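User: I'm putting together a teaching handout on how multi-component assemblies are represented. Below are the sequence lines for each component of a complex, exactly as they appear in our records. Could you produce the 3D structure of the whole assembly as C-alpha cells, so the students can see both representations side by side? Please keep the chain order the same as the input.
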Amino acid sequence: MSSKKGVILHLGKKRSNTNILVVDDEQDIVNLIKQSLEPNGFQAYIFIEPSAALEHFISHSKDYDIVISDIRMPGMNGYEFIRNVKENNPKVKVILMTAFEIDDKEFHNVLSDIKLDAFLQKPFHIQQLNEVIEKISP
Amino acid sequence: MDSGENQTMNCHVNDALDHINQAEHGAHYIIIYPDLDTLRDLYSNYVHKRIEQNNEIVLINPFYETTDAVRQVLSEKYSHGMDDVSKYEKEESLLISDSLEEYLGDPPLIYVKKSLENYTKMGKNGVSVLADLGAYPHKSMYKDLVDYEISLPTKYDMPIKGFCLYHQKDFDEFSDEQKQKLIEHHGKALKIIETQ
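Assistant: Of course. Below is the structure of the complete assembly, with chains in the same order as your input.
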C-alpha cells in the first residue's frame, strides 16, 4: 500500500467515523448542511426541533463527535440545547451558528463554563462549514 | 386549570388572514403559528394588502428570521421586488425591526412609538403591528411576557391593530394558567393549523 493511498484510507476512515448532529428550525438549512457534509464523508443527522434532537442525543450521546446548533429556535434556544448536550457528553465538540449579532453578555451569562469549539455566522459558505468541521473533527 | 385553548379559533392560514384583514382599529389579537413558512405566508399577504390598499403604516418585528429575510419574503409579493420594499421603508409606511431590540432593547418600543407619532403627519389611517414575541421565551422571560401582555388593553383606544405572534413551540412552554391569561386578554385568539 502506498503512503499516499494510506493517507486517503486513513482520512476516509476518520471521516466515516465522524458523526454530526445538526439542529436548526429551518428545514432548508439542515438539508443544505447535510448535503454539504455527506459528500465529504461525514455522517450528518438532522433535526428541526431541538427537543427531538436532544432526546435523540441523550440516547446516542456517545455516538456523536460534533453537534451544530442554531441559536434562535422556538421551544428551546441553542444555548440551552448546547448546555444539555454538554451535560450528557462533555467530550462532544459544539458549534453554534446564527444569522443575528451575538449578544456577548447573554452568551457569557449562559455559556460561561462551556467551551464553544467554533462559531458560524450565517450566511456561510459550504466550504467554510467543511473547513470548520475538518479543523475540530477528532 | 383550563389552558384557554378551547377559546382559540383553529384555522388555516387563509382564514387567519381573513380575520386580520377584517380587524378594526383597536384590535389586539394573539396568533399562534405552527412554523416560519406559515408565518411568512401570513405576514407577506397582509402587508401587501395593508400598504397598497389601506394606507396604513405596518410595523413587523420578526424574531426567528432576520429583518433582511423579511425584506426578501416581502419583495416576492411586489412587481418591483426589493425596490418596492425599499421605497416603502424609505417613506416609512413599512417598518421592520428585530423583536429582541424592539421589545427588550433599551429603550424599548422605539418603532411602535415612532409609528404612532407619525401616522397622522403622514396622512395614514393607522398602524398595524405584527410582533413575534419569541424574544421573551428565548430569554426564558415567560412571566414578564404575560405581565407585559396584561398591561396592554384587550382593545386599544387608538388607531392601532396589534397582532401578537407566538410560535406554537414557544406557546407550549407557558403554564396552563399563563396560556389562559394570554388568550383571555386578547380580543381574539387564532391558532393556525399546520397545512400538510
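A couple of points students might notice: Confidence is low (pLDDT under 50) at residues 1-14 of chain A. The CA atoms of residues 3 and 114 of chain A lie 39 Å apart.
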